[in-house]
């Protein structure tokens, strides 16, 4: 096994034991990046020389006994909405031409303090306003969408061009590309990870979280990100528990809710079969499966768009009026549509969110975790704009991908997406686990228990569509 194939946990142990140096690890990942990047286009920019300098610094620290933790010397990518001092934050948009961040975002500063090595900035759908990231190709099939908006981060991790990465999630933008590329994506509880220095899409829906190859790795990264930051008005002052799973696969006494509505409506048969098989595996580990009804499903889409669209338009108000021609057409149209939304619609969406949070809180009194598909379909071909379901219903790809992930953004609940198989075309399938606010530890425990029962997952093959 090459160093670029290692998980964070395995690489960290090898570095601690002096069996692997940070420079060897970073060199291996950079070489892999150079090999796959021309086909996948996951990165906006790569700073190979700076990464190697940081790896040499980490190597000296380790040799001197100054190991900072499991991320020390581990190479990462950051979604290009996340400020790094002295580097551009392009948001994959011409609007940001010439931009350069003056200071680190909170998450970039915390990862640097943990010793992580920055490889570069990864592509996003322009200003995170989309679910496909069109400039990046799926890590398993270059003719298919990467998912979005954190498509570059997910593809880099899936292909071995980063050991881990950060993404942002406003309506599924960590979990969707993670599911479509066969990696792990965690959207934490709203406010758990500070967003200072991160370009916003929708203030009341935005989250920052890790994309990794294993659930254990997601826990390791999360541990370095959490903690109150007064510069983010939504930042929580919650205690910082130990997120790393204890390794047990015993789920005795855990109640897992399996929805009988909404999450399995208009879902590809292979996706449903893989997720139901995964829940059966959890039952085999001692969990109790409980059929549940998802509340207020008819209001999910209207509430998500009713919150996101006007907030995004408010954020972009000045540049939209000054340089509308610099936005991609799909993003500009959405931003202009936000100018037409009445204030009453936004207020009704806020009220709907409040009622939805209350209803989900009641639901999660009866179960500990909910298990469901992350997305209803595997990665579509790059030119496909709609999905036609067996009953004749036609759904836009972006609507389909956001449909099952939006409830966790609206309510602020944590949600973990993890791979649970592949379809007959070899494309990854994801299952999401949803839990109570600040319930990340339980989600990670369940996800890790499932992962322990499965064989190690290979890196993406980056094949071309037949």
Spell out the key features of this protein.
13 strands, single chain, eleven-stranded mixed beta sheet, two-stranded antiparallel sheet, 466 residues, globular, alpha/beta, 38% helix, Amidase signature (AS) enzymes
End-to-end separation: 28 Å
Q: What CATH first level would be assigned?
A: Alpha Beta
Number of strands: 13
For the biggest sheet, the summary is: 11 strands, mixed
The assigned CATH architecture is Alpha-Beta Complex
Low-confidence stretches: none
Please estimate the helix content: 25-40%
In total, the number of domains comes to 1
CATH superfamily: Amidase signature (AS) domain
- What structural class should be given to the helix and strand makeup? alpha/beta
CATH topology: Amidase signature (AS) enzymes
């Amino acid at each position: 096994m090459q160093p670029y194939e290692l998980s964070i946990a395995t690489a960290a142990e090898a570095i601690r034991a002096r069996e692997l140096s940070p420079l060897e690890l970073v060199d291996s990942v950079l070489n892999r990046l150079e090999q796959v990047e021309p086909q996948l286009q996951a990165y906006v920019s790569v700073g190979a020389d700076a990464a190697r300098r940081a790896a040499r610094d980490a190597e000296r620290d380790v040799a001197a006994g100054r190991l900072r933790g499991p991320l020390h010397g581990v190479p990462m990518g950051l979604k290009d909405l996340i400020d790094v001092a002295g580097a551009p934050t392009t948001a994959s948009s011409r609007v940001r031409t010439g931009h350069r961040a003056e200071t680190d975002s909170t998450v970039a500063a915390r990862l640097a303090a943990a010793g992580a090595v920055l490889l570069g900035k990864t592509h996003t759908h322009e200003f995170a306003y989309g679910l496909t990231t069109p400039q990046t190709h799926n890590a398993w099939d270059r003719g298919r969408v990467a998912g979005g908006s954190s498509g570059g981060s997910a593809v880099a991790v899936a292909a071995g061009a980063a050991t881990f990465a950060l993404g942002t999630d406003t309506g599924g933008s960590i979990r969707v590309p993670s599911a479509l590329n066969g990696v792990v994506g965690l959207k934490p509880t709203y406010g758990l990870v500070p967003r200072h220095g991160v370009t916003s899409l929708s203030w009341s829906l935005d989250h920052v979280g890790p994309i990794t190859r294993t659930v254990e790795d997601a826990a390791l990264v999360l541990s370095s990100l959490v903690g109150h930051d007064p510069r983010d008005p939504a930042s929580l002052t919650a205690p910082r528990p130990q997120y790393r799973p204890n390794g047990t696969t015993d789920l005795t006494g855990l109640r897992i809710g399996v929805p009988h509505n909404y999450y399995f409506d208009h879902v590809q048969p292979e996706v449903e079969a893989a997720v139901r098989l995964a829940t059966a595996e959890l039952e085999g580990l001692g969990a109790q499966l409980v059929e549940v009804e998802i509340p207020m499903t008819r209001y999910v889409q209207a509430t998500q768009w009713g919150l996101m669209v006007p907030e995004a338009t408010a954020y972009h108000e000045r540049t939209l009026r000054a340089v509308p021609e610099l936005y991609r057409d799909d993003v500009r149209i959405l931003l202009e549509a936000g100018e037409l939304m009445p204030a009453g619609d936004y207020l009704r969406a806020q009220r709907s969110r409040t009622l939805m949070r209350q209803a989900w809180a009641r639901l999660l009194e009866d179960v500990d975790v909910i298990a469901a598909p992350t997305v209803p379909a595997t990665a579509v071909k790059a030119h496909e704009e709609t999905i036609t379901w067996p009953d004749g219903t036609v759904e836009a790809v972006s609507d389909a991908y956001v449909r099952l992930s939006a409830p966790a953004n609206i309510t602020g609940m944590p949600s973990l997406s993890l791979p649970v198989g592949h379809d007959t075309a070899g494309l990854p399938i994801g299952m999401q686990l949803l839990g109570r606010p600040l319930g990340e530890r339980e989600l990670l425990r369940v996800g890790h228990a499932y992962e322990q029962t499965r064989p190690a997952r290979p890196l993406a093959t980056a094949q071309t569509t037949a």
